[in-house]
Amino acid sequence: MTPDDFNLIRGILKKRSGLVLGDDKAYLLESRLMPVARKHGMKTLDDVIAAVRSASTEALLVDITEAMTTNESFFFRDNKPFDLFRDNVLPRLIESRASQRGFRIWCAAASSGQEPYSLSIILKEAERKLAGWKTEVVGTDISKEILDRAREGKYSQFEVQRGLPIQFLVKYFDKQGEHWTIKPDIGSMVVFKELNLLGNLAQLGKFDVVFCRNVLIYFDQPTKKEVLEKIAGLMPADGVLFLGGAETVLGITDKFEPVPGQRGIYKLTGK
Please, which of 18, 44, 228, 245 could form a disulfide with 223 given CB 3.0 to 4.6 Å? Predict the structure, then answer.
């Protein structure tokens, strides 16, 4: 692949998804795009590049974007954010939303569904305190294919072993052959929607808690600012934002500030 070819694909990804592909990520193209080539009846990556240059179809561009933006996910990833949600954020929500008896959570870039299902398990564990409440977990992603898989809620033995406590596996999943499928009462707690973070987020409505973890690291500074400020517009004054361990709002936007003593959690500044 020539530098011009790489820059062509890089430009498509930036325009369509906000993803900034670094020079050191050229090696990903072959592993991620060869399945796209086969799907479209092509034999090599050069065939894909030629098709993009000549008369690229929307279907091909969608498949290229989805292939390059689909990221790995696993249950209760990094543990700490989920502990903070369960022990700090959820009790505050139960207290502050007592009159309306409901709240909404958004998982941006939900991938194959492990993050929103992890949150649903936490809510299910607290169902006595939430009896009669209306809670909703919304998981969004740019990839139609990965969302279909998330809705199915079926995971391999390897996937459920990564972060999912054995007691939750037995309690909230059914064994089906070599796979585990999320039980309907957990699956029904999550709504999955196709969404590009560069698009119109207002269509989602308001959210009390937003998980946007390990997403901003793929964007440049102006795109990070744009996405964060659109997220801020969806949240009430006491809303809470969770970012990944390597992410921050500092130096990017003044709409959020860190919550003291709770690493990775941010609150609105009111600006």
Answer: 18
The string over 93-130, giving b where at least 16 C-beta atoms fall within 10 Å of a residue's C-beta and e elsewhere, is beeebeeeeebbbbbbbbbbbbbbbbbbbbbbebeeeb
Domains and CATH numbers, the chain: 3-69 (1.10.155), 80-268 (3.40.50.150)
Helix (H) or strand (E) holding 222: helix 221-232
Residue 115 amino acid letter: E
Residue 70: pLDDT band (50, 70, 90) is: low
Helix (H) or strand (E) segment spanning residue 140: strand 134-141
Other CB atoms within 10 A of residue 145 CB: 14
Q: What is the pLDDT of residue 153?
A: 95
Going by C-beta distance under 8 Å and a sequence separation of 6 or more, which residues neighbour residue 269?
254, 255, 256, 257
- The tens digit of pLDDT for each residue in 47-56 reads 888 888 886 6
SS3 at position 3: helix
In tens, the pLDDT along 226-253 reads: 999 999 999 999 999 999 888 999 999 9
Given a cut of 90, is residue 139 above it in pLDDT? yes
Judged against a pLDDT cut of 80, whether residue 31 lies above it is answered with no
In terms of C-beta distances under 8 Å and separation of at least 24 residues, what long-range contacts does 94-98 make, across chains too? 94/126, 94/129, 94/130, 96/238, 97/133, 97/208
Lookup: tokens for 99: 């009159």
The answer, yes or no, to whether residue 211 has pLDDT greater than 90, is yes
Q: Which two tokens stand for residue 55?
A: 């008369």
The pair phi, psi for residue 160, each rounded to 5°, is -75, -20
- Sign of the Cα torsion 169, 175, 179, 181 reads negative
pLDDT for 256 beyond 70: yes
